[in-house]
Amino acid sequence: MPGSVLAPFPALRMRRQRQGEWIRRLVRENTLAPSDLIWAMVVHEGEGRVPVAAMPGVDRLSVAEAALAAKEAQTLGIPCIAIFPHIDGATKDPEGSHAADPDGLISRAVRAMKAAAPDVGVMCDVALDPFTTHGHDGVIRDGRIANDETISRLVEQAIVQARAGCDILAPSDMMDGRVGKLRAALESAGFQDMLIMSYAAKYASAFYGPYREAIGSGKLGGGTLANPLDKATYQMDPFNSDEALREVALDLSEGADLIMVKPGLPYLDIVRRVVETFSAPTFAFQVSGEYAMIAAAGAQGWIDPSRAMMESLAAFKRAGCAGVITYFAPVAATLLGG
Ligand code: PBG
Fold first, then answer.
1. Active site (annotated) includes residue 202
2. Distance from Cα 211 to the centre of ligand 1, integer Å
3. Would the pLDDT of 227 be above 60?
4. For residue range 126-157, what is the model confidence (pLDDT) as tens digits?
5. Which of 83, 132, 136, 137 gets mutated to test ligand 1 (max ligand atoms within 8 A of its CB)?
6. What is the mean pLDDT of residues 91-111?
């Protein structure tokens, strides 16, 4: 918008278009609908619902509850649910062996959810961290995360998830070359229609803290539950931006259909660059820490949590996201009249 065009119109008053809700709605540049939301949901082995202390308002759901939630998503118009498993400590080991158990929690949850609501998409995280005692996303050899050995295990896990009936595989491990290996394995196993949403630009972030409690993840070696630095050898440095474009380019060239940037709100600049550079469907993950900040400040009465939630979701749309993975999905969709 060149300034010279505006110069002869000194009576331009921007507030005219804000004077009433009807005109604000008319000039609104972006919209938010339940169809923009992917519901982030934690499932557990036990019965019923168990509150997650660090995420007020979020419960871990049993398989039966997850099936009910899938029906609720259908009613609310939420197109897809992303599930994350809380695994009993007793079944964890340093290798994450149970990640590829065909009768494991994720397989059972996917089957129950697809039976309850066949038209709601189910997305599965492809990663070892819920299954390892140390909480890392890969197997450890000589004190390092072994890239290629980890990928072989991820491929086994992903094929099990595909057989259980999931619709989107979402590798979140940040190993190099995993999307290509996954795509090749899916093709040869007859899953040529399987969608891959790659956690392409995933940062080593402190904002994943509450998630570690939610899924009962390991303490990352000698660190604390919230220690983000231990994943810095595979997740991205928060100071980097150009590097995110290289990650996205690689994952698209290896066969990813959908791209994710994670965390969400602190990385909207990355979302915008990715959208402008690649024009691929780009999603942001509003992660556990982002949820916790809004919920906790809301519980104190320091912010209006509903308005803060909607404003943050609007920000994702403004940045160019095709959709948002968020723990707020059912609350937001209800308010949106889904
Ligand atoms: C692990 C994984 C993480 C999240 C999703 N998948 C944590 C991590 O990478 O340490 C974070 C989700 C959240 O914080 O809501 N592969």
1. yes
2. 6
3. no
4. 999 999 988 899 999 888 899 999 999 999 99
5. 137
6. 95
Q: How far apart are CA 205 and CA 203, in angstroms?
A: 5
**Tokens coding 44:** 């557990």
- Check pLDDT > 50 for residue 180: yes
Residue whose structure tokens are 């999307």 = 179
Mean predicted confidence (pLDDT) in 23-45: 98
Average pLDDT estimate for 50-75: 97
Pure H helices in the chain = 3-6, 21-27, 63-76, 105-116, 147-164, 178-188, 209-214, 242-254, 268-278, 288-299, 305-319, 329-335
Q: Which residues contact 216 (CB under 8 A, 6 or more apart)?
A: 86, 87, 89, 130
Domains of the chain: 33-335 (3.20.20.70)
For residue 118, count other CB atoms closer than 10 A to its CB.
10
More confident residue, 264 or 134: 264
Residue of 114, 202, 231, 317 marked catalytic = 202
Ligand 1 environment, Cβ below 6 A? 125, 127, 129, 137, 172-173, 208, 211, 231, 287-288
The values of phi and psi at residue 163, to 5°, are -65, -30
Nearest to 312 by CA among 259, 258, 263: 263
151 by DSSP, 3-state: which? helix
